[in-house]
Amino acid sequence: MEGFGQFCPVSRALEVLGERWTLLVVRELLMGSTGFNEIRRGLPRIPTGTLAKRLQALTAAGVVEIDGGRYTLTPAGEALRPVVAALAAWALGPGHVPLEAGHLDAAALTWDLQRRIDHEAVPARKVTVELHFVDRAAGDRRYWLQLDRGRANLCSTDTGDPVDVTLRATTSDVVRWWLGECSWRELMTRPTTRIAGDRTLIRALPTWFLGYALAARS
Predict the structure, then answer these.
(1) Distance between CA atoms of 71 and 76, rounded to whole angstroms?
(2) pLDDT given for residue 3 in this prediction
(3) Which of 42, 189, 190, 192 is geometrically suited to a Cys-Cys bond with 28, CB 3.0 to 4.6 A?
(4) pTM flag (> 0.85)
(5) How far apart are CA 91 and CA 102, in angstroms?
(6) Domain spans, the chain
(7) Which helix (H) or strand (E) holds 65?
(8) Residue 195 in 3-state DSSP?
(9) CB atoms within 10 A of CB 147
């Protein structure tokens, strides 16, 4: 991007990180994504060409390195972890950046859910959880999480496997729970929330998720 022509370290940092999507690409790498398609799943609205350009620019700036088609952060990139966490904490502050309808993306939400699984808490057998977002359009309404002790697989089409638990809720309510703005108990009391399936699994379900990684949680 065009430079600001200022000595200020903030302006120099923004010359590297200030382009649209750039810091979100860094966020995805901080969350453990290494492949191009993995990064895209965390940023479902980024154009493929834009992602390629941002990764190229970050590599040229010494923030990212690529080896065998896998992207990782350099020490300079890892040093951005507290910066990204501080931005998240600021946005979650009272009244700072209110959550609005344009911020809700079921694909990005479910991708974040599947990569924050406590695999030690999940039953040893495979469990399928259907997430049904009642406020989304038909093609963006249903997702399936297949979980076991060793993996988490997210599907946007029905695989035909038996569903053990189905959670129906609005995208907004699930996002607020995920960000720590409401408890699981509060989510369950929302007027549009419904949960059905194996009762033992339903009781255990909230313990399988580690929560949003960048949220300040008590």
Answers:
(1) 14
(2) 85
(3) 42
(4) yes
(5) 15
(6) 9-91, 101-208
(7) strand 64-67
(8) strand
(9) 25
Structure tokens at 120: 């030690």
Helix (H, G, I), strand (E, B) or coil at 144: strand
Polymer length of the chain: 218
Straight-line distance from the first to the last Cα atom of the chain, in angstroms, rounded to the nearest whole number? 39
- State the DSSP H helix or E strand holding residue 84, giving kind and residue range, or none if neither: helix 81-91
Fold of 9-91: Arc Repressor Mutant, subunit A (1.10.10)
Tens digit of each residue's pLDDT (9 = 90 or more) over 9-54: 999 999 999 999 999 999 999 999 999 999 999 999 999 999 999 9
Token pair for 194: 């419904």
CA separation, residue 173 to residues 90, 165, 180, 189, 191 (Å)? 21, 18, 11, 10, 10
Low-confidence ranges of the chain (pLDDT < 70): 216-218
The pLDDT value recorded for residue 172 is 97
